[in-house]
Specification:
The mean pLDDT is about 85. It is rod-shaped, with a radius of gyration of 44 Å. By secondary structure, the protein is an all-alpha fold. It has two helices and no strands.
Length: about 120
């Protein structure tokens, strides 16, 4: 991890004690640890952001997919409404035919009754 890298770096510098005084080495060690921890936090934040971005993209794709499905359903609904209207017109037409036939039959029955008398 980054912490291990910074600690290795720290140990390489501290080994050369002729350059560093002991109290400076402690300060440097603390600073190196702080930097390593901050780096880890940054990596965690970056990972979280990447995950959130991935989830957002998935939600956006899902939303687009749902929009397409809704549009398709709207088209189907329009077609079905037109089909229903055609069927209603056909039913009305057939009902009118039935009424005319019933009137014709009624008229024929009356004619046959008059002929029988």
């Amino acid at each position: 991890t980054k912490l291990e890298k910074y600690l290795k770096f720290y140990h390489m510098i501290v080994k050369n004690e002729s350059i560093r005084e002991p109290n400076h080495s402690e300060e440097f060690k603390m600073l190196a640890e702080k930097v390593a921890k901050q780096q880890e936090k940054l990596e965690e934040i970056e990972e979280t952001l990447n995950e959130q971005t991935l989830h957002r993209k998935k939600r956006e794709k899902h939303a687009v997919s749902l929009e397409c499905k809704i549009k398709n359903l709207e088209k189907i609904f329009i077609v079905e409404m037109a089909n229903n209207e055609k069927l209603e017109n056909e039913i009305n037409f057939q009902n009118k035919k039935i009424e005319k036939l019933e009137e014709y039959i009624k008229g024929e029955k009356e004619k046959s009754k008059q002929v029988q008398k």
